[in-house]
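pipeline stage [seq->struct] | target=Carboxymuconolactone decarboxylase family protein | organism=Dyella ginsengisoli | residues=151
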Amino acid sequence: MSRFAIQRHFATFQPLLALNQAIQASGLEPRLITLVEMRASQINGCGYCLDMHSKDARAAGETEQRLYLLPAWREADCYAERERAALAWCEALTRLDGHDSVSDALYVEASAHFDERELVHLTLLVTAINSWNRINLAARTPAGRYKPAAH
C-alpha cells in the first residue's frame, strides 16, 4: 500500500523543520541532541530516524560504543551525568505511561543538569523527534537510504 511522501508535502512540514532549526541553535550540545533523537527513535521503532541519526552521529564523531549501548544507557558508564538526565527526561516524555510519567523527582534531577531555558529546549527536542517518528511511521518512510551531510 502506498502512503504519503513527506517530500511531496515539504511546505506543510516547515513549522516542524523550523522547530528543529531552533533546537539546533538553542545551545544544547549536538552530541546530546543526537543521543536524545536516537533514544526516542529506538523507543518508537522509527527505522528511518534511527538510520538518519546514527549516520549523522557517526559523521559528527560519535563512537560506535555509545550508539550501541544507548538502549542500556543506565548500565553503561560512557554517558555524562547531563546526558543521563536528558535520556531519562526523553524516555519519560516519550513513553508517557500516565499522569505521573514525568515525576517531580525526575524534574528535580533534570533541573540539576539543565537550567529552565535548556529544559524547555530539551522538552521541545523530545517533542519534535517524537513528532518526526510518528510522521515517518505513518508515511512508512523506508530506512537505510539516508546519506549524511558533510561535517
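stage status: PASS
auto-comment: The longest helix spans residues 116-139. The chain has seven helices and no strands.
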